[in-house]
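The material for today's practical consists of a large collection of protein records. Getting from the letters to the tokens is the skill we practise here. To make this concrete, we reproduce a full record directly below:
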Amino acid sequence: MKATRIPFGKIKKTKIVTDTLGIQNTSEIPMEIVFEQVPRHLTFKVVPSVLKYKERGKIIATYDATKNEYGNSVDRIPIIMINDTVKTKGTIVVTATVEEDFSYMTEEDLANAPEIHFSTKNYDFGSIEKGDTVSCKFIFENKGKSNLIIRNIKVRQGCSVGRFDKVLKPGKLGVIEITFKAYAYKGRYRKNITVISNDPKNSSVTLKLSGNATRKHKDKK
């Protein structure tokens, strides 16, 4: 197999796209490829379905963005290469960023679109101890002329999304609650939160969490 990664890049939410991955059977017996745990937005096809000795082929991957959520995604697909009774396992990593399609919007549409504005995009928890759970709120406003819709909120490991205002009318304030659990014993940490909305001029906003994690008192020598 020439590569184990298929980077689709940016895909509009309304699109279905394909890409290919070159493969070759280097064994002396025919080989089949089986895909496992495939999410609903991905399909795979091997051409030819059975590869003869030294035969080259391709894996055709299809990404249906209409069936996945907005934002970045990384899918690790287990594969099994079967040569008679011998099974070799591998992984194909598929990456993509699903974005809203604003190409249809006219100048009038853009003038009347929602606009997302945060009072601050950074929050520092200060010093916390290992295992502590802390929360914060990010305040945002819709300064546009139509309803602001939060399409998705992507968080990093250790973070979770609490209550948030999904739809915000023009001129109104909204809240996004984020909870962080400190897994590290000690050290400075930084976490990014990505907020995806229907604001055509600023559809992806990055919020930043930071702080310093220390050992619990009973763990200290």
